[in-house]
């Protein structure tokens, strides 16, 4: 079926709202336009960031399309038009040089045993960093090691990794059940569940165990880095490192710094990201950083369109992928992330910013309450239980 809103295909409306929100973020001066585009391109697998997309379309045409779709343009866009500007300009300029020199750590620790923790541990070990992974219990620790080993075996089988490199990586990785084993690490990354209390507990323990000057990083994407730092007596040593899943593959790392994070700490996090073959993008500490701040309102907007009967799940997914070049549609992405995780992130964004665009709608809340969490539960927006018949 053809889905329309304001006489314009729903996918076009969804895209325009996403582009407009990016212009608002740029106007706020949170990060430079080049960083915004890099983060969205690498973090979401897009061919171009939103500002570059608007440049390609042309500012005048973007404003025409927004008028037709009843999207109120960001003040920055109308101001640029009044100034006779045609777009945002070049967002591909080289990254700024580091203000503080830093070298990658010789040893690192990971606290956690889930998918993200194992993925980061794998990346560290492959790139020559001696790594200790601390899990809650011997069974979880063994499972994390098996996960890394299986991933490395798959990489060798696909010709992406030499067998000798695999063996060397395995030799650099060990698992433990005691956080005390991180005492001598130069750099420790917390990758436990995305909840404030467990993260603060980890940082309190790291403050007790880790040597002076060790960098303590959190992988949070929606909680406060400053809150983690407050659980320690060394806020200058605490920084955010938001890796993207799968951590060994995805190129972006958002490096979130608080007002108390020392420049040497931020530089060390950026140096480690580069050593792992990643692209670090620095940003001030706040919920969602860059990618989630733009991505989740876009996903929530898509859900709202379906709730209002303005679009269908399959049609909107197909349009965003086939017409607008997104790697996958919004509902396929929600199923992949997990509807419970998406709901939690939206709630945190709404709590911090009060933005109506981040208020979760009843459809998402209902699906989570029903246990339909996406791929991991076998049911979400697309995946159906056998008794429910055809997919949405």
Automatic annotation (TrEMBL):
<comment type="similarity">
    <text>Belongs to the 3-hydroxyacyl-CoA dehydrogenase family.</text>
</comment>
<keyword id="KW-0560">Oxidoreductase</keyword>
<dbReference type="InterPro" id="IPR008927">
    <property type="entry name" value="6-PGluconate_DH-like_C_sf"/>
</dbReference>
<feature type="domain" description="3-hydroxyacyl-CoA dehydrogenase NAD binding">
    <location>
        <begin position="108"/>
        <end position="285"/>
    </location>
</feature>
<comment type="pathway">
    <text>Lipid metabolism; butanoate metabolism.</text>
</comment>
<feature type="domain" description="3-hydroxyacyl-CoA dehydrogenase C-terminal">
    <location>
        <begin position="14"/>
        <end position="87"/>
    </location>
</feature>
<dbReference type="Pfam" id="PF00725">
    <property type="entry name" value="3HCDH"/>
</dbReference>
<protein>
    <recommendedName>
        <fullName>3-hydroxybutyryl-CoA dehydrogenase</fullName>
    </recommendedName>
</protein>
<feature type="domain" description="3-hydroxyacyl-CoA dehydrogenase C-terminal">
    <location>
        <begin position="288"/>
        <end position="381"/>
    </location>
</feature>
<dbReference type="InterPro" id="IPR013328">
    <property type="entry name" value="6PGD_dom2"/>
</dbReference>
<dbReference type="Pfam" id="PF02737">
    <property type="entry name" value="3HCDH_N"/>
</dbReference>
<dbReference type="InterPro" id="IPR036291">
    <property type="entry name" value="NAD(P)-bd_dom_sf"/>
</dbReference>
<dbReference type="InterPro" id="IPR006176">
    <property type="entry name" value="3-OHacyl-CoA_DH_NAD-bd"/>
</dbReference>
<dbReference type="InterPro" id="IPR006108">
    <property type="entry name" value="3HC_DH_C"/>
</dbReference>
């Amino acid at each position: 079926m053809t889905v329309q809103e304001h006489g314009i295909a729903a996918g076009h409306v969804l895209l325009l709202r996403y582009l407009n929100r990016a212009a608002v973020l740029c106007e706020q001066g949170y990060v430079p336009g080049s960083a915004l585009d890099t983060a969205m391109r690498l973090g979401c697998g897009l061919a171009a960031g939103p500002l570059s997309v608007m440049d390609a379309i042309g500012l005048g045409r973007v404003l025409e399309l927004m008028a037709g779709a009843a999207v109120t343009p960001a003040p920055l866009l109308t101001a640029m038009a009044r100034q006779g500007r045609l777009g945002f300009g070049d967002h591909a300029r080289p990254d700024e040089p580091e203000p503080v020199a830093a070298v990658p750590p010789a040893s690192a620790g990971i606290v956690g045993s889930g998918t993200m923790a194992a993925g980061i541990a794998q990346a560290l070990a492959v790139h020559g960093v001696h790594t200790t992974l601390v899990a809650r219990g011997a069974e979880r620790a063994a499972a994390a090691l098996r996960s890394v080993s299986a991933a490395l075996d798959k990489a060798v089988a696909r010709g992406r990794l030499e067998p000798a490199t695999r063996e060397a990586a395995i030799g650099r990785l060990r698992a433990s059940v005691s956080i005390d084993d991180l005492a001598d690490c130069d750099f420790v990354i917390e990758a436990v569940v995305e909840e404030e209390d467990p993260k603060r507990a980890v940082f309190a323990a790291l403050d007790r165990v880790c040597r002076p000057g060790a960098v303590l990083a959190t992988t949070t994407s929606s909680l406060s880095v400053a809150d983690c730092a407050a659980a320690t007596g060394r806020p200058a040593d605490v920084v955010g490192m938001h890796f993207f899943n799968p951590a060994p593959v995805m190129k972006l790392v958002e490096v979130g710094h608080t007002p108390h994070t020392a420049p040497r700490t931020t530089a060390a996090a950026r140096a480690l990201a580069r050593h792992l073959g990643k692209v670090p993008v620095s940003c001030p500490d706040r919920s969602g950083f860059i990618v989630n701040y733009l991505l989740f309102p876009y996903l929530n907007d898509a859900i709202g369109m379906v709730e209002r009967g303005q679009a269908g799940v399959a049609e909107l997914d197909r349009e965003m992928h086939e017409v607008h070049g997104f790697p996958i549609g919004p509902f396929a992405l929600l199923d992949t992330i997990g509807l419970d995780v998406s709901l939690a992130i939206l709630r945190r964004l709404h709590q911090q910013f009060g933005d109506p665009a981040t208020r979760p709608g009843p459809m998402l809340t209902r699906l989570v309450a029903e246990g339909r969490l996406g791929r991991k539960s076998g049911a979400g927006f697309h995946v159906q239980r056998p008794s429910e018949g055809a997919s949405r």
